[in-house]
Amino acid sequence: MMAGRAHGHRNRLRRLIPRLLLLLVAVYAASFAIYLLLQSHSHHQSPPDPTPRTEARDGVLAPSSSQKPWPRLPSFLPWVSSAVPPPPLHTCEAYFGNGFSRRVDVLPAGRGSGGGGWFRCHHSETLGSSICEGARVRLDPALIAMSRGGEPLEQVMGRAEEEELPKYEPGALQVEGPAAGMPVPLVDAGFLNDYVPTGGIGMHTMRALLESTRVVPPGELHCSQWVEEPTLLVTRFEYANLFHTITDWYSAYVSSRVTNLPNRPNVVFLDGHCKAQLEETWEALFSSVTYAKNFTVPVCFRHAILSPLGYETAMFKGLSESFSCEGASVDSLREKPDYEKTARLSEFGEMIVASFDLLQDDIMSSKKSNGLNVLFVRREDYLAHPRHSGKVESRLSNEQEVYDAIDKWAQGLKCKVNVANGLFAHMTMKEQLRAILEASVVIGAHGAGLTHLVSATPDTKVLEIISSMYRRPHFALISHWKSLEYHAINLPGSFARVTDVINELRKILEGLGC
Length: 514
Hints:
- By secondary structure, this protein is α/β, with parallel strands linked by helices.
- It is built from 15 helices and 20 strands.
- It folds into 2 domains: 92-318, no CATH class; 360-512, Rossmann fold, CATH 3.40.50.2300.
- The protein has helices at residues 2-45, 92-98, 161-164, 189-195, 205-212, 242-258, 279-285, 314-317, 330-335, 344-355, 361-369, 399-411, 429-438, 474-482, 498-511, and strands at residues 102-107, 118-124, 129-139, 144-145, 167-168, 173-176, 184-185, 214-216, 225-227, 231-234, 266-269, 288-291, 299-306, 326-327, 341-342, 372-377, 417-422, 441-445, 461-466, 485-490.
- Strands 1, 2, 3, 6, 7, 8, 9, 10, 11, 12 and 13 form an 11-stranded mixed beta sheet that branches. A 5-stranded parallel beta sheet has the order 17-16-18-19-20, with helices on both faces. A two-stranded antiparallel sheet has the order 4-5.
- The longest helix is centred in the first third of the chain and has 44 residues, at 2-45.
- It is globular, with a radius of gyration of 29 Å.
- Residues 43-68 are annotated as: Disordered.
- GO terms for molecular function: UDP-xylosyltransferase activity.
- Keywords: Glycoprotein, Glycosyltransferase, Membrane, Transferase, Transmembrane, Transmembrane helix.
């Protein structure tokens, strides 16, 4: 009897053991799968290179920090990556920033016992410019001679411009890497001439910053303050002028895209300009804004990007260089890529609009339902910077007369036409952008306010009144690069005949069904 029970027990064990083994194998397989999944996720979040090359869709990457995420932009197209070949030299797409395709590793990552720092530049032969970036970078504001910056305008009236622009001492910027016991220059004159040429710029501050940069041995990068998120280092020149500032914004935007930042970066101004009205838009576009001299001690950046000067963008180079380029819709370029056409300026205009939460359908619907809006962009007196008198030079001597005549004429039309008085100097940036978005026609004398055309909708018509003293192609080019219908009245002086302006405006409105 005892032997029978023992035999039965052994039979049950024989049947149970295979089941237990199968169960253990299943648990092990599941655990191993979870392990691989976690390892894969961990690798994606923290790769060896601190600037992961993650592909974007509609310009959006998964947020990985407290920085602002990129908004979804209808005109976004992928920037240069391993999956997208660079455009040919001197093509439209190369001019608008997607030609920073030659990577130069100045200080390769993970080389021997060189520490955690690295430094590289992305060069555009088309623009003759480079976007440089580095890891474990130290900025010492004590080695930069310039005014503090960010002061109220009224407190610094009369301050000279040279006081506001940076002059660097050796070691103002440092990067950790292999060095023989003492700091050594990061680059030599040959490198600067090849990749950061002056290009006719009298004071090339980015070149000067690179010239001051030193490589220091591991453990010698002494910092009491670290900035963990990617940060753009930017120098502005004509910071109170909308056209020049938009070239700075565009350069900073392109720098962020070329280096494939997962979120909108911080910005540090390497200049000592006072606070100006346009700083509001810097703060809207990027995650944070500060001045280098606001740091009281040396500060270190896990990832710093040196943004090229606005003078090196297509918008500025187009004033002196001739290149074939026209605007196109993103849908047409997705269907049929063409390097001689671009949607980059539309993409950037949407970036500005989205930063003020205006990338919405209700503006477009109200634009169509409330009649035709004619926006007259005005030039008016305002105090721009410490060397400014507060008086704006007239480009249209009878501007008020022309505005009043258009307003009165529009009231007598059968169709509904609303004439808006675009006094931009006394409007917030959000109000200015809304006025541009709602406009069916934008009219005005040649002046920086017309630079807002970068944010205009594709159906907007443009009428520029150009005096004989200011025959410059700024806004004809922007309109062409945005594929906007452009008209111009060239004056023999600065006085416009009201009938000429109204006749030209009548033709434009007839084309809109009025």
